[in-house]
Amino acid sequence: MASELDFSPPEVPEPTFLENLLRYGLFLGAIFQLICVLAIIVPLPKSYETEGDPSEPRSAEVTRKPKATAPSSNKRPKKETKKKR
């Protein structure tokens, strides 16, 4: 009975090029995901350049507000004329 048992390691074929490509691609994808998660969790200190940028959108919002009020002022007289009829 002891002569029938074979304790040699099983024969495993060498991985092909596509299997290696898939393995390393999965590793790179996992590393990229970890970097993305860390970028969300760990805040970066603000630099001098990013502090100047918020003032630009504020000026754009100021210029948008008069444009938004102009159409609403045009609508009000039309409603008033309908009420007079």
From TrEMBL:
GO terms for cellular component: membrane. It is a single-pass membrane protein. Residues 55-64 have a biased composition (Basic and acidic residues). Keywords: Membrane, Transmembrane, Transmembrane helix. The keyword RNA-binding does not apply. Residues 75-85 have a biased composition (Basic residues). PANTHER family: MANNOSIDASE, BETA A, LYSOSOMAL-LIKE, MANBAL PROTEIN (PTHR14409), PROTEIN MANBAL (PTHR14409:SF0). This is Protein MANBAL. It comes from Erinaceus europaeus. The gene is MANBAL.
